[in-house]
Amino acid sequence: MNGMKWVALVVVLGAVGCGHAKEGDTCNSGDVQCEDKHTLLECETTGTYRAIPCPGPQGCVFDNNAATPILVCDLSGTVAGGECQSSYQGFVGCTDAHNALECNGAHWGAVSCPTSCQSGETGVDVPQSLGSCS
Which of 82, 90, 127, 131 has the fewest C-beta atoms lying within 10 Å of its C-beta? Predict the structure, then answer.
């Protein structure tokens, strides 16, 4: 299966940085940051960071040139079983015309689309649309 052809954008609401926090460290709700070049840290409701892979070539980068500073997590190259952000629950990303990955709130699962797959569009903080597999 080919990787997803989209990039997730995440609003920087709290702590900003790269390489300081680690998965499992305590955090405040809304905190997101890059743990390293290919790992986004998202603060879970438990008050601890959870690592989310950003496998695409852009990886995890801070973009302060945007109107609102954002972290960009490149999801291209994502595969079934990989972790996804809890805010992406139900999001469908097409891997080709008849296959997709869907976020169950924790991991990406492979989905077969008998007729067609239409990707949702990513936007700031959460996907703008969920996409569909029919």
Answer: 90
The pLDDT value given to residue 125: 43
Residues 6+ apart with CB under 8 A from 58: 7, 72, 74
Strand 32-36 to 39-43 pairing: antiparallel
pLDDT digits (tens, 9 = 90+) for 62-79: 877 767 777 888 888 888
At residue 100, what are phi and psi to the nearest 5 degrees?
A: -150, 170
CA distance 6 to 73: 10
For residue range 24-41, list pLDDT tens digits in order.
Answer: 999 988 788 889 999 988
Measured between its terminal Cα atoms, the distance across the chain in Å is 18
Percent of the chain at pLDDT exceeding 90: 13
**Burial call 43-68: b when 16+ CB within 10 Å, e when fewer:** beeeeebbbbbbbbebbbebeeeeee
